Amino acid sequence: MQGRVSAVSIVDAIAADLRSRIFAGDLGPGDTLTETDVATSYEVARPTAKASIEKLVPEGLLERGTHKTARVVDLGPDSVRDIYLARAYLESEVLRRLAHSKTVPEGAVQANRDIAALQSGTPLDVVEPDMRFHTSLIDAVGNERLSRMYRSLVGEVRMCMVRVQSLHLLDTSLIHAEHRKILELIESGQADAAAALLDEHLGRARDRLAEAMGGDPAARPDPARPRPGHPKG
């Protein structure tokens, strides 16, 4: 049988590079991205530049009105809370299901080892294994639509996580310790405790980032959401 090699299109390659520049902070919140600039920078035609830009709009990385120049999204405190809450809704249920079957995905275990092994580096060096930890948990459920739904948030999630690391709001040792405890709770079948710890884990990042961005530290994300057994911290 002959193997198949998928070629990455020029549009996808440019979009991937622009995405990396946004995550790395080379393109910051509010920065404009014109078709002319992209076409000139990457030596491509304007339609190619336009298509590359348009790929990042539905990912939540760029915003663009009708006949308007694209800009890097400038997430405010309310958006940060919304993004983390969307994650919590999906991930909490996933953890409960994994705990019921005591399924600990090896991908999550390895990702947490990679976090523990970090000595120094850029914010992205922390974000990459951190994101891999969470997506491994989602994928372990084996539901294609759930994984696709979660990945629709990934662009905005990464932007938040990069800001958290850039502002030194969370120590990697704490991230690693809480990840490890989550996996232990899953392995021992403690579904509610695993979900509660995840809520605390995500909530700490959410609240610190929202406050650092000028949000009200007293704001509560969702008073209607029941959180039984949520540990105090």
Question: What's this entry about, in short?
Answer:
With 233 residues, the protein is mainly alpha-helical.
Key features of this structure:
233 residues, transcription regulation, WH-like_DNA-bd_sf, 10 helices, GntR family transcriptional regulator, single chain, 3-stranded antiparallel β-sheet, Arc Repressor Mutant, subunit A, transcription, 2 domains, mainly alpha, Four Helix Bundle (Hemerythrin (Met), subunit A), DNA binding
Structure report:
The chain has 233 residues and is mainly α. It has two domains: 10-72, Winged helix-like DNA-binding domain superfamily/Winged helix DNA-binding domain (Arc Repressor Mutant, subunit A, Orthogonal Bundle); 77-212, GntR ligand-binding domain-like (Four Helix Bundle (Hemerythrin (Met), subunit A)), CATH 1.20.120.530. Helix content is 63%, strand content 3%. The chain has ten helices and three strands, in the order H-E-H-H-E-E-H-H-H-H-H-H-H. The protein has a three-stranded antiparallel sheet with strand order 1-3-2. Helix 1 (10-24) runs parallel beside helix 8 and helix 4 (77-101) crosses helix 6 (123-140). The N and C termini lie far apart (57 Å). Mean pLDDT is 88; it is low at 1-6 and 223-233.
